[in-house]
Fold this protein.
Amino acid sequence: MTVPERRPAPDVTLDTDTGIISPSTGLEYSDDGGETWKPCPDPFDVSDMAGEDIIIREPATGTDLPGEEVTIHIPEKNPTPDVALDYGNETINTTDDMEYSTDGGETWQPATEPLDVSDMTDKDIVIRVPGDDDHLASDEQVIHVPARPAAPAVGHTDETRYGREDGSLTGTTTDMEYRVSGGSWTKITGTSVTGLAPGTYEVRYSATDSSLASLTQTVVIEEGRRSSGGGGGGSSGGGSSSSSDYTVRFDSNGGSKVNSQTVDRNSTVKGA
């Protein structure tokens, strides 16, 4: 009787990021030193077998002996990240040896230190330490970044006269903050903000221990009316201005009438 030669050991590899041994189709494994054997599942996820040795071979058939064996050591997992969301700074305190996913672990991106999540609102951020030659990938931690609250709806007053810088925000509360567009945020301490120069301002609700800063409201404070520049009448005298002040005197004796008329600066409005 001829004894068949054993088939060679299968060429399998362990992906330490996914914890999967492949290929696994048509193979069997033992996790008790070869005492018992079980068919390899496909895919063969061994991420819950950290620290164990797995023996893999081709099973016996009606004409073939079991194949040669290969032993795969399953390393321990990297430590689970200890991270949290900073609502005020809109960051997660990741380190540069971590990675993150915004699609439930389908794809992964290298993490920065820390991770800016200001553009990742209303999403679950999955964070882990990837696998390496000596470790499986860590267990994952999921951080939910909430949606931003709605923007406030404050009122405002414009500058009353050019150069006075007396515009204001009205209807504010102490849980809001404001800034000149693109500038630094300033905490609001009352029901109004006064002494504002003309310009574009942004107002939002401040971040809390459980909420991001809200969406922003944009408020435009208009420039005040410019006063007359003075000087002689007509187009030849004095500086130009956007508007002029006139004094009109009416003679009530007999009831005078003033027709509609266009006047130059420092001229007289004549009665009919």
